[in-house]
Amino acid sequence: MMDFTYYNQNCFVEVYVGYLSHSIQLREEAHPLIWLDLHHDFFDCTKFAGEGNIGHMVEQVKIYGQGLYKN
Predict the structure, then answer these.
(1) What is the pTM of this model?
(2) Residue 11: strand pairing partners
(3) How far apart are CA 18 and CA 70, in angstroms?
(4) CA–CA separation, 30 vs 40, rounded Å?
(5) Are 6 and 12 in contact (CB under 8 A)?
(6) Which of 14, 27, 54, 70 has the most beta carbons within 10 angstroms of its beta carbon?
(7) Could you tell me if 3 and 14 are in contact, meaning their C-beta atoms sit under 8 angstroms apart?
(8) How far is CA 58 from CA 14, 25, 27, in A?
(9) Of 71, 33, 40, nearest to 57 (Cα)?
(10) Alpha-carbon distance 52 to 9, whole Å?
């Protein structure tokens, strides 16, 4: 859906959007994974990194969904 390049941190972030057709089991790698619904406060900087960027990304998904590239 979108991507961000943080040149000063040498970091590139990609955001993908989709819908699950069935339940899946999360597979942890280096860090634990959890599902959060879209009603969570993703602007809460005490829980999420990115100085509000996560909240911005989620709001864009809510507004535009999958956009032009829907299946």
Answers:
(1) 0.61
(2) 6
(3) 9
(4) 24
(5) yes
(6) 54
(7) yes
(8) 13, 22, 22
(9) 40
(10) 17
